Every structure is written in structure tokens, then in C-alpha cells.
User: Fold this.
Amino acid sequence: MTEVREASRPATLSVVTLTAVVIGSMVGAGVFSLPAQFAAETGVIGALIAWAVAGTGMFMLALVFQRLAVRRPELDAGIYAYAKVGFGQYLGFFSALGYWASACVGNVTYWVLIMSTIGAVAPELGEGDTVLAVVLASAGLWASYAVIRRGVREAAAINRVVTVAKVVPIVVFVLLAAFAFDPSVFVDNLRGDPDAGSLFSQVRGTMLATVFVFLGVEAASVYSRHARSRRDVGRATMLGFLSVFAVFASVTIVSYGILPMSEIAALRQPSMAGVLEAATGEWGSAFISIGLVVSVLGAYLAWTLMAAEVLFVAAKDDDMPRFLRRSSGDDVPVNALTLTTALSQVVLVLTLLSQDAFDFALSMTSSLVLIPYVLAAGFAVRLAWADRVGRVVALIAAAYTAFLLVAAGPQYVLVSFLFYAPASVLFVMARREQGRRVFSRGELVVFVVSLAAAVVAIVALVAGWIAI
Assistant:
């Protein structure tokens, strides 16, 4: 029988380390793709509105995580635990599952973007979507797995160093692009493409991209069991969010002063490299490309740890099968880490079937996390209504997450149920291990709805109504 070992001395993380984890989780593949992602949808005015909406909504969501960490300190791995306490065990399981799957798919975007970056000088890698690119990315996937198995402390220390290393090229990009800024180009990009539709539709088109880059704002709450103080969780959440938001908005806006929108939208990913090349020459592209590789590898470490942490805590709470609660003496949830890496590997292979590997992985990452965000905000509303504290913040956060579901559209939300429905087998396993009835009446309704959505998604994919 496999031995179950609990870590005798869990890793203790300070507010500085937790802040680095939040920044490290948020600064990844997304920020390097922002110029093209935004320019393909909207002009400067739409971009400013989109950042105002996304910034306000995510700020409120960050405040929600900050307040819940302080007011409900007994809830470990926040985003999953909040859904469970607020809406029951099965929806809590859905939250853990969606957050975990989102992290796994998000990790795939990192490897696709690394291969695409190297593909600029090695055409065999294409845009990260060739067989060779998938083989090399798979090797990197499992090499990172070996590093993370060494322990939470080691991985957190690496992430802290890498966070500094990867923020530097992004800040340099903003400064150099601001120096090369052309006001006439910026003015020409104000209104966007006349054929892009209404301003609302332009803003709506950027929402999945903003969700993707803001993923990680909840990172400190996921690691709450490791924090020296639960108040450190809230502080790290706010410090990380505010600093990264300033960087994200700056990267997008200064790019509109370098190239016409149509040229930015057509840039190869990572589009930041193309923008800086236009501003400074070829060395700018090389500089950003190197920064991207460092940034993405650091973000990958942080996200893999977070994904495994959610499965581990859910298993300790009997919401996932018992085999996922096993940890090494170094406080690493080994089986959860293995399952996390395995899912990333499966999705990495699936990118070979998609029309655009990066866009597919980005959109799926954002769509999968929407249900966990909606449930966490909903729990905050219930809690605020009960004691009349923080109602406005909770309501704005809930409204924002609901808007994200609408903005995402049905395509990727439907496809996300291809993860949710089959993975419910883990919930069934956990219930049977406890000798309990698998589904209550309400839980059965949720399961049937998710199963029906998965069937509709399969039919839509086969019929060509939606495509990946």
C-alpha cells in the first residue's frame, strides 16, 4: 500500500513571498500577447473603456478575496472553499474542478507561446502548433514537474527570483515604447476599425483577454494555508493586483502609439516583440522574446503549484478522491501535481487539432475560470447580506463576473462542460469512498444540466456550429 505522508512542517510564506506569487501568477503569457489581442478587437477609446471595466471589476473581486481571507480565515484554498460553503459540496467541487482545469489549460498557453517565440528563428516550430513544438513543450512540461516535486519552498523561492526577472523587460518595453510614441499614430487608432461594430461589441471582444491576464489575482488565497498571517493574504492580493494592473494597461495603450491597429493585430505572437521591434529595431524583439521565456517559465511554476494545491485541499475536505491528498515530506501534493501535469499534456496534444493553438488555449482558460469566479462572488454577496458589511463591493464583483459569462459567449462556455461533466467521476469516487449517496436531488439536477451542456458541445463541434 502506498504510504500517506503529511508534511510535518508546512512551508510558511510571508506577505512578500505571497505578493511575488500573485505577481508571478498574473504576469505570464497574457501580457506579452496584449497588443495584438486588443488591436484585433478595438481602438484606443474601446481599450480605455475595457481596462476601466476590467480594472474596476477585478479590483472589486480582489477586494472580495481580501475580505473573505480575513473574515473566514478557516477556509483554505479560498476560491474552492468559498463556493463549497456558499452553495454546497457539488458546486464547490465544480469550482475546484474549473479552477484546476483553467490552470492546466493556461499552462498550455505558456508552452505554446514559448514554442511560437522560438519559432521566429526555428520555423519547424511554427507558431507553437507543430508536432515538433508539442514534443519539445511536453519535455519542458515534465522537466518542470521534476523541479516542482522538490518542494513548495524551493518552487516559491524560484518564483520570487523569476518574478523580478520577468517584470524588468515589461517595464523596459513600456518606457521604450513611450519614448518612441507617435501622437499622430495614436490619434488614428482612437476609434478603431469602422467595421468592428459598436463600441460595446468592441469592449466585449476584449473581455476574455482581460480575464486571462488577470488570472492569479486570487493566488494568495489559494495558498492561505501556508500564510504566516491571514491578513498577509489580503495585503498580497491588493499589492499584486494594483502593481500588475498598471503594467497591463500601460503595455496596451502605449502600443497604439507605435503602429496602426491593423499592423498590430497582424503581428505574430508574442505581439509585444513586434511592437518593440518597430520602435527600436531587431534587438527589441530579441529582448522581449528572452523576457517572455523567463516570464512564462516562472508563471508556469506558480500556476502548476496552485492547480495542485486546489486538488490537494479539496481531497483533504473529502470532495476529491483520497489518492489526491497524498503529499511528500517536502509538502508537495505529489498525486495532485501528477494529475495536473497529465491534464496539461492532454490539452497540449489537443492544440494540434485547433485552428489557432494560442487563441484556443487562452479562450478556454478564461471560460473555465468564470464559474469559480461567479461562485466566489456569489458567496461574498451572501456573506455581505447576512452582516451588512461590504455589500457594494460584493454586488459589483458579482455583477462583473456575471457580465463576463455573457461577454464570453456560448462557444467556449459550452466547450468547458466537456471538462466539467466527465470529471464529475472524481466526485463520484469521493462519495463512494465515504459510503455516501452519490448525488442529492439538487446535485443530480446540476449534473444532468452539465451533462446536457457537454452533449450539446459535442454535437455543435461535430456539426461545425462551433470550432476550436
Notes: The mean pLDDT is 78. The radius of gyration is 21 Å. The chain is about 75% helix and 0% strand. The longest helix spans residues 282-316.
